[in-house]
Amino acid sequence: MIVIENISKHFGGIKAVNNASMVIETGSITGLIGPNGAGKTTLFNVIAGVYKPTSGQVFLDGEDITGFAPHELFEKGMLRTFQIAHEFSTLTVRENLMMVPGMQSGERLIDTWINPARVRSEEAEIRAKASDVIDFLQISQVADELAGNLSGGQKKLLELGRTMMVDAKIVFLDEVGAGVNRTLLNSIGDAIFRLNKDRGYTFCMIEHDMDFISRLCDPVIVMAEGSVLATGTALEIKANEDVIEAYLGTGLKNNKRAKK
192 in a domain, yes or no? Predict the structure, then answer.
């Protein structure tokens, strides 16, 4: 689905991403891990159109989408969430979900005057879809709560729900588990798994929690110093000596050797 070929992103003399290549297969939950400063979020931002790459190309289903703006990628079914949730804090959970679909008739004042029945019908369809999302995510208890009052984990569930309000081809999740308690993290993981298996969503996720990554992701891609270091299953990555050194530190690598 997504093919990334030799992407680099430089900020002055800093090579945040350096000649990175990877493939995200349709129907996969791909994990992207690495130490802080490895270039993971910068790569996400290049793929999602926030940054234009210094060099390299990004393809979606064979189409070159390099440098496309975020709203253009949204229309093509590429969505992303952020490490810090971006909710409309003064709207309810249900209203946040209903805001997502674009080109709604009710957004045009003239339609509210000359075709109010169409506006009402469309709003009813969107409300029904929002209710389906709320039921799927099992958050009916906060459906009419202001989003600003939600916990960090509930806000992450809401962000995931917002991706369900449109026909997403692929969703990029940036540290969906950051600052989330274990109970809610399990709920988020269950939702991602069900979206993948039952509704065919493709995911790519940045995450530091290896238990969470191991539960959901295959393959796992490791970045270090802006480049791809290794790709494999979670078990293969955990046993990879280069990953242990880059991601966990040389001390642990040497300690592992000493125990052999």
Answer: yes
Tell me whether residue 52 is in a domain: yes
DSSP state of 127: H
DSSP label at residue 218: B
**How far is residue 55's CA from residue 30's CA, in Å, rounded to a whole number?**
23
Q: Which amino acid is present at 205?
A: M
Tell whether the torsion through CA atoms of 132, 133, 138 and 139 is positive or negative. negative
Count of CB atoms situated within 10 Å of the CB of 216: 21
* CA geometry: angle 5, 7, 8, nearest 5 deg: 160
Q: pLDDT digits over 65-114, tens only?
A: 999 999 999 889 999 887 777 888 999 999 999 888 765 555 555 655 56
Residue 100 falls within a domain, yes or no? no
- Cβ-contact 4, 20 below 8 angstroms: yes
- Domain carrying residue 231: 2-85+165-258
Q: Is residue 119 part of a domain?
A: no
- pLDDT per residue as tens digits for the range 201-225: 999 999 988 899 999 999 999 999 9
Task: Give the span between the Cα atoms of 218 and 111, in whole angstroms.
Answer: 47
- Count of domains in the chain? 1
Contacts of 109 (CB under 8 A, 6+ apart): none
The CATH number linked to 54 is 3.40.50.300
**Can you state the angle between helices 152-163 and 182-199, rounded to 10 degrees?**
10
User: Are the C-beta atoms of 253 and 73 separated by less than 8 Å?
Assistant: no
Answer yes or no: are the C-beta atoms of 154 and 142 closer than 8 Å: yes
- Say if residues 47 and 172 touch (Cβ distance below 8 Å): yes
